Amino acid sequence: MNLKSQFASITMSQDLFHSNLPLELESGEILPEYEISYTSYGELNADKSNVVWVIHALTGDSNVSEWWSGLIGEDKFFDPSRHFIICANLLGSCYGSTNPLSINPKTGQKYFYDFPELTTRDLAKSLDNLRNHLGIHQIHTLIGGSLGGQISLEWAYILGEKLSNVVVLASTAKSSPWVIGLNESQRMAIESDQTWGEKSENAGIKGLEAARSIAMLSYRHPEDFQKKQSDLDEKLDGFRASSYIRYQGHKITKRFNALSYWILSKTMDSHDVGRGRGGAGKAIGQIEARVLAIGVDKDLLFLSSESKYIAQHAKRGTFREINSTAGHDAFLIEFEQLAYILQSFYLENN
Ligand SMILES: CC(=O)SCCNC(=O)CCNC(=O)[C@H](O)C(C)(C)COP(=O)(O)OP(=O)(O)OC[C@H]1O[C@@H](n2cnc3c(N)ncnc32)[C@H](O)[C@@H]1OP(=O)(O)O
Ligand SMILES: N[C@@H](CCO)C(=O)O
Q1: How confident is the model at residue 9 (pLDDT cuts 50, 70, 90)?
Q2: Predicted local distance difference test score (pLDDT) of residue 10
Q3: What is the mean pLDDT of residues 174-190?
Q4: What per-residue confidence (pLDDT) applies to 3?
Q5: EC number(s) (predicted)?
Q6: Is 212 a known ligand-binding residue?
């Protein structure tokens, strides 16, 4: 379906891929059929060599020109007049792809809590099925941050020589105990909501509010709070940081649900590109594409050293660092630094 684009003369299309073939999951469970919603910008060139595939993070969607507007758009680093840019909503997420609120074809009812656990490998496989469906035989650049970076690594492993460059932002080869612990606290917050367990779209929504507030503390750095949320006046209550964190918790409930959040946070936990492949370092060493791993110096969630590890173990790896008090979320905010790093990477390597 072609949509009115925000760009003057660029094609933007929002489409749905329906797979009647089942997706066999790492857990042994099966998604009998599934849909993937995806957005693309620009046109494939004659030899299909201009594909830039973006993978969104935990609560993102496929409208990459909105949430990555500093990097994608007319005259931006990835420009739809030159690149064919595509982003698919991840399975499990609530922006158009099959998720816990979709109908389970086996029962004719919504999945709710019966939705299967998905790994980053399962998600990479589902994206590869979409790629095949679209007849894309070569991806110039695959790029993703956080959970999107984890899936990018998994997919890069599968893609082999069909991928030229993979850019992994603020991410990791294997989720650390720290990340898993933080995600478990967030799921505990969801569980403590009395509505969790109900077969309702709003189940666990207050819990999700608390979960996002915990998550925000790992997405930012204390210096970011110091800069933006300090109170100028002396007070005993009603602090700016309190209202900010509550606001952020509430904001997510207007656009996301606890079931999708639960599933995708579990996906993040089980991520390990080295599972069954002799360890993360060995698996990364088998990726054929050039690997650019970008860390954020003040990322408290996925440490910059984890990005360095990825680059060090790749056959053709480069490590770069963003300097930002924004912390983990810098990959969604620091467009100038990102564009500079990407520019120099392509100049040096392509
Ligand atoms: C439909 C969709 O939205 S699709 C999904 C798009 N989102 C994604 O892809 C996920 C990735 N994006 C994100 O995580 C975020 O949007 C980021 C990281 C890029 C930016 O985060 P933001 O929340 O916009 O920035 P920031 O932390 O500065 O907070 C700003 C907000 O907090 C509010 N705020 C700031 N300080 C306070 C305070 N002391 N008390 C209350 N509210 C406050 C601001 O008014 C602003 O509100 P707004 O979002 O309604 O405009
Ligand atoms: N802020 C990101 C999560 C951290 O990668 C999101 O909401 O998707």
Answers
A1: low
A2: 67
A3: 98
A4: 47
A5: 2.3.1.31
A6: yes
- Class of the CATH-defined domain 2-176+272-349: alpha beta
Alpha-carbon gap, residue 23 to 14, rounded angstroms: 23
* Mean per-residue pLDDT over the chain, rounded: 96
DSSP of 234-262, one letter per residue? --SS--HHHHHHHHHHHHHHTT--HHHHH
Task: State which of 37, 58, 67, 296 you would mutate to test the pocket of ligand 1, scoring each by most atoms of that ligand within 8 A of its C-beta.
Answer: 67
d(CA 334, CA 71): 10
Tokens coding 11: 């094609």
**Measured from the CB, is residue 255 less than 6 Å from ligand 1?**
yes
For 230-255, the pLDDT digits (tens) are 999 999 999 999 999 999 999 999 99
Catalytic residues: 146, 299, 328
pTM, two decimal places: 0.96
- Cα-based angle 260, 272, 307 (whole degrees, multiple of 5): 100
Would the pLDDT of 317 be above 50?
yes
Residue 329 known to bind ligand: yes
ipTM (interface predicted TM): 0.93
Cα 292 to the chain's mean position, in Å? 16
Tokens in use for 204? 């666990």
Structure tokens that stand for 39 in this block: 């957005």
DSSP secondary structure letters along 196-234: BTBSSTTTTHHHHHHHHHHHHHHHS-HHHHHHHS--SS-
**CA–CA separation, 220 and 330 (whole Å):** 8
In the chain, ranges of CATH 1.10.1740.110 domains: 179-267
Q: Whose CA is nearest to atom 7 of ligand 2?
A: 59
Per the model's pLDDT, the better-predicted residue between 10 and 319 turns out to be 319
As annotated, the residues of the chain forming the CATH 3.40.50.1820 domain(s) are: 2-176+272-349
Residue 101 CA to residue 81 CA, distance in Å, equals 36
CA of 186, nearest ligand number: 2
Across residues 110-139, what is the average pLDDT? 97
